[in-house]
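Morning!

As promised:
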Amino acid sequence: MNPGSPVHPIPARAGIGLRLPHHALVLAERPAAAWLEVHPENYMSDAHSLAELEQVRKHYPLSLHAVGLSLGSAQGVDAAHIARLKGLVERLEPALVSDHLSWSIAGAQYLPDLLPLPYTEEALQVVCRNVSQVQEALGRQILVENPSTYLQFAASDIPEAEFLAALARRSGCGVLFDLNNIYVSATNQRQDAAAELRGWCRALDAGAVGEMHLAGHAVVATEAGEELRIDDHGDHVCAAVWALYEQALAHFGARPTLLEWDTRLPAFSVLQSEAALAQARLDSAQQQSYARAV
Amino acid sequence: MAAALLASDAAGQALPEHMFAGAHAGAVGLRVHRNTVLGALSHALRLAFPAVDKLVGEAFFDRMAVDYARARPPAAPQLDEYGRDFPDFIAGFPGTETLPYLRGLAQFEWLFAELARCRAEPGFTGPSLQLEGGVRLRFAAPLRLHAARFPVEPLRAAILAGDAQALAAIDLQRGGDCHYALWRSEQGVNLRPVSAASARFLAAVYAGGDAATALAAAASAGGPGDIAIAQLLAQEIVPAGFVQVSATPAG
């Protein structure tokens, strides 16, 4: 992108996760979408797709949602990966940059998953150091997302919401608040998701929440026959997550909201329809907010 | 925990349960993460090696991919670059003894995938050759040359198309040298089978050689004389789509 190109801010509207199979359609037809979000790791060694994304970027506000910074790694963040991300940030001028409260690199191995942290003061200091390193290198704030969790460490002595809230306060990062992850984590731990959400609302400063995520998930059975929810981003948003989203909007106010869909990727029009459902709730929240203000 | 996610034996996959709390046993959560990690790595390989996947079948491909992931996990998050030495790894994989062309097919697919990720260079200025009679050849694409012991290009095409008839028509026992020129254009990856003489000619040109050097290299492939070289230019090089020909009238 040439210097001086306008930077499109991300509106408090419903955006769509752009995946490589939809590039051609988006370039050819420019379908309606308030904004788009991509995984930057898909463009770091794919010059062809990056060239396409640069064309897309001319017509849509863009967010970069990383999966490979490994912000929870005790060994620190890989400087080479920060440099790759910085290169894309300078080239694409995204309005938002984010990653997850998780780790994926140990030693010289990259494990493609969002692996859980023990929520302790020691881990908090590690993540604060890593987030600050990334923000310093990029010269901007990043958002950090709450992941879906399937494991809880016995050593954890800080609730996840308070952990992320403290991270935001100490490092100055923002929060990417994923409602599907709240639901998946809570139900997998046999906890009441609505009560969990209320805990998040109490813990997080509203001003820290820079984006929300919505997605579908899978329901499977363990070998013991217990129900387990897997955050595979492969289905429509379920009713319970829509309810959590409405609660979150009522508390935090309208925020840019992304509809994520990664596995069993449907036609782009399906994503548009799903995003429209989020947009309707955003519109309603904004009307209620306006009514309260007047 | 990283070791437990990639461990190949049951003992190595377990972690002490007292590390974990919550509604499910730690082993349940570990299994979810293990499936995600190995599934993502298998998926990345499947994208790069679609014909290998289709040839050996999904379950067998997964076995190769999981063993590869355990032996050589990726070092960086850009998974496009993961799998460079997968062809070497599967060459000796138990159960593939009847597929001597598997490594070559995988190497060809990796090259194809690499080129697919390249940016098309419509303004590319490659080498040019001044031939006798005022003819000038301008090579307008960043060419990659590939040599294989088996006809991997028709093999790949037949497998991906599911064309059993075409597959049966390929003599895979014969072996021999097969040469391909590949390049990236805005339309996608372009491919042209070429003779050994053309491959040597092109390699010499792209190495910066002049016309005499390139023609000598082509001749060394099998000793074609001047007429054969002319045929090679007319039949293989010029129509290939990556060469522009101009003629300067003799003055």
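The beta strands of chain B are 20-21, 128-130, 135-139, 144-148, 178-185, 188-194, 243-247.

Hope this helps with the figure draft.
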